[in-house]
């Protein structure tokens, strides 16, 4: 299998990359880690006329951790962010989600921002970003920059709000309030494969231990991550609420009924684990 | 056509390739290094794994032009200067960690980086580390033994 021919651009800095992207418009595609795009090229499912390789843009190879959240540049590879203890301390869900993305060797090349723009309905990073209420920063030639909230960024299966000529330069994963816990549970046929279904959860408690927020984001069961507020729901009601909110498709890997059942089970487990983590945080900080 | 320079197994190599040439094909066809095997060409089997600046990557999911200016280690570069086998290669030899050998270059490169970063991995870490490499012959047990043994050799010789 060989990729179809294309014109290759290897800009040296961000300004040059944006100028090239403006020139090629919808005939061009950005090449980041290539872990999703190159399979598509090899199988001739994507036939871009121009490929703009951003791997030389050292200025996008950034990871900045502040108390309010983690910002990853477009060249921050999965493995780098997964290893960062500072990032895991501010936003533990990042590492939990990253460990479920493919295999370590794929994560050495793949980028978080690439995962977000690729917008696979079964991918983990879009669910983490949506659950946390994060955003993606898009830039275009001429200096125009816009921050798109996750809720508006994922528009369909493999579709995002990125417009032709734009480059996603970074993504922001906000921290959660104190006394919060997170979890990510999924089931895949084989270790490292895309999940049949998966659920990320985030729970926040108040100082008395009452739940102020409990949310889940489900993957593999809709065209984009399905986020659901389950604050106040009893454990057995969580599964029911999730199954009522999703309309999974059937494919050769699993029937719609099985996916629906699975999402409910995973949601119950994820909420339970996130809740446990939030309780430990509460005990740790003292009441 | 693009002229690229790669440092492959410590040797500066030049190649002139179309932009769409995969690193795996560049190594095999342009540089004659056929030790890197090609199975699925979509990232699933792992037999094309090479080290790019020391980190294991899928050469079938990397364009040769992207690797321009970087260092590559292939299975041909794992042995010592006089051809003595590396600890990982000896582990596979001793523990019968291969049958047909098709998957072996990928396992060797993956395990080399794994044990460099963590010479005393738990069984779980070994399984996680090589889970992205498929083998149709061995049933994996001897591969896991081989990686464990290679870790012992590295620790003994450190
Ligand atoms: C065997 C295998 C298993 C996998 N399993 C999983 C899994 O379980 N879960 C999962 O989430 N993913 C999985 N993946 C996909 C992997 O995580 C990809 O690395 C990731 O989805 C895309 O990141 P990338 O940097 O490689 O992007 P690329 O492949 O380079 O690009 C992907 C898409 O995003 C666009 N793009 C990338 N970066 C930008 C940018 N900065 N601005 C604008 N557009 C951009 C590209 O044009 C392209 O359309 C798997 C891949 C393989 C090969
Ligand atoms: S040939 Fe590269 S992973 Fe299979
Ligand atoms: S030894 Fe034959 S595929 Fe692994």
From TrEMBL, chain A:
One of its GO terms (molecular function) is oxidoreductase activity. Keywords: FAD, Flavoprotein, Oxidoreductase. Residues 1-178 form the FAD-binding PCMH-type domain. PROSITE patterns: FAD_PCMH. Pfam families: CO_deh_flav_C, FAD_binding_5. PANTHER family: XANTHINE DEHYDROGENASE SUBUNIT C-RELATED (PTHR42659). This is Carbon-monoxide dehydrogenase medium subunit.
From TrEMBL, chain B:
Pathway: Alkaloid degradation; nicotine degradation. One of its GO terms (molecular function) is metal ion binding. Pfam families: Fer2, Fer2_2. Residues 2-78 form the 2Fe-2S ferredoxin-type domain. Keywords: 2Fe-2S, Iron, Iron-sulfur, Metal-binding, Oxidoreductase. PROSITE patterns: 2FE2S_FER_2. This is Carbon-monoxide dehydrogenase small subunit.
């Amino acid at each position: 299998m060989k990729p179809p021919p294309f014109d290759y651009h290897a800009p040296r800095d961000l300004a040059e990359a944006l100028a090239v992207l403006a020139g090629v418009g919808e005939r061009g595609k950005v090449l980041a880690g290539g872990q999703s795009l190159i399979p598509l090229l090899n199988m001739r499912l994507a036939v871009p006329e121009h490929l703009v390789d951003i791997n030389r843009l050292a200025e996008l190879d950034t990871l900045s951790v502040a108390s309010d959240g983690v910002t990853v540049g477009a060249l921050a590879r999965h493995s780098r962010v997964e290893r960062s203890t500072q990032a895991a301390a501010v936003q533990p869900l990042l590492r939990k989600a990253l460990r479920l993305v493919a295999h370590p060797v794929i994560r050495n090349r793949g980028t978080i921002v690439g995962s977000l723009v690729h917008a696979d309905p079964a991918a983990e990073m879009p669910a983490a970003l949506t659950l946390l209420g994060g955003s993606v920063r898009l830039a275009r030639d001429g200096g125009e920059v816009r921050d798109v909230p996750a809720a508006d960024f994922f528009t369909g299966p493999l579709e995002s709000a990125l417009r032709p000529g734009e480059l996603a330069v970074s993504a922001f994963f906000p921290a959660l309030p104190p006394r919060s816990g997170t979890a990510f549970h999924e089931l895949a046929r084989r270790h490292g494969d895309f999940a049949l279904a998966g659920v990320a959860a985030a729970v926040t408690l108040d100082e008395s231990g009452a739940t102020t927020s409990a949310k889940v984001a489900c993957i593999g069961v809709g065209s984009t991550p399905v986020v659901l507020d389950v604050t106040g729901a009893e454990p057995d009601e969580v599964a029911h609420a999730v199954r009522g909110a999703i309309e999974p498709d059937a494919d050769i890997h699993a029937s719609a009924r099985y996916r629906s059942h699975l999402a409910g089970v995973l949601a119950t487990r994820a909420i339970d684990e996130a809740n446990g983590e939030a309780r430990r945080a509460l005990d740790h900080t003292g009441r | 056509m693009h002229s690229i320079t790669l440092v492959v197994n410590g040797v500066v190599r030049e190649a002139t390739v179309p932009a769409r040439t995969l690193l795996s094909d560049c190594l095999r066809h342009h540089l004659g290094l056929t030790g890197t095997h090609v199975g699925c060409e979509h990232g699933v089997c792992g037999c094309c794994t090479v080290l790019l600046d020391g980190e294991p990557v899928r050469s079938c999911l990397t364009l040769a032009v992207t690797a321009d200016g970087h260092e590559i280690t292939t299975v041909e570069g794992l042995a010592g200067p006089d051809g003595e086998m590396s600890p990982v290669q000896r582990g596979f030899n001793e523990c019968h960690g291969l049958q047909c050998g098709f998957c072996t270059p990928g396992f060797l490169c993956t395990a080399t980086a794994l044990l460099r970063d963590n010479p005393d991995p738990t069984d779980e870490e070994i399984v996680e580390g090589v889970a992205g490499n498929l083998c149709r012959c061995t049933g994996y047990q001897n591969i896991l033994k081989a990686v464990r043994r290679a870790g012992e050799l590295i620790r003994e010789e450190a």
